[in-house]
């Protein structure tokens, strides 16, 4: 039996009202993608401004959570 991947999805709204707010949002998205790795890549998709969807999936259910949040 093949292991089933754990799929994680987050719908987020990103807003920044500063003069260079778009640059801050881009930087935040780059950092979110950098938080992923080869085993658990983070993907970001634009739904409609300011709504974005972050998705990832992994086969290592326990290891992913312990490594990411500790």
UniProtKB/TrEMBL annotation:
PANTHER family recorded: EUKARYOTIC TRANSLATION INITIATION FACTOR 2 SUBUNIT 1, OS07G0692800 PROTEIN
InterPro entries, sorted: TIF2_asu_C, TIF_2_asu
A Pfam family of this chain: EIF_2_alpha
Top-level taxonomic group: Eukaryota
GO CC, alphabetical: eukaryotic 48S preinitiation complex; eukaryotic translation initiation factor 2 complex
Record protein name field: Uncharacterized protein
Gene Ontology MF terms in the entry: ribosome binding; RNA binding; translation initiation factor activity
Keywords: Protein biosynthesis
């Amino acid at each position: 039996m093949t292991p089933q991947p754990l799929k994680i999805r987050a719908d987020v709204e990103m807003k920044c009202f500063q003069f260079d707010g778009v640059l801050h949002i881009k930087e935040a998205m780059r950092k979110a993608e950098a938080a992923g790795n080869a085993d658990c890549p983070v993907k970001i998709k634009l739904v409609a401004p300011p709504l974005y969807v972050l998705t990832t999936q992994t086969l290592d259910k326990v290891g992913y959570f312990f490594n990411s949040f500790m």
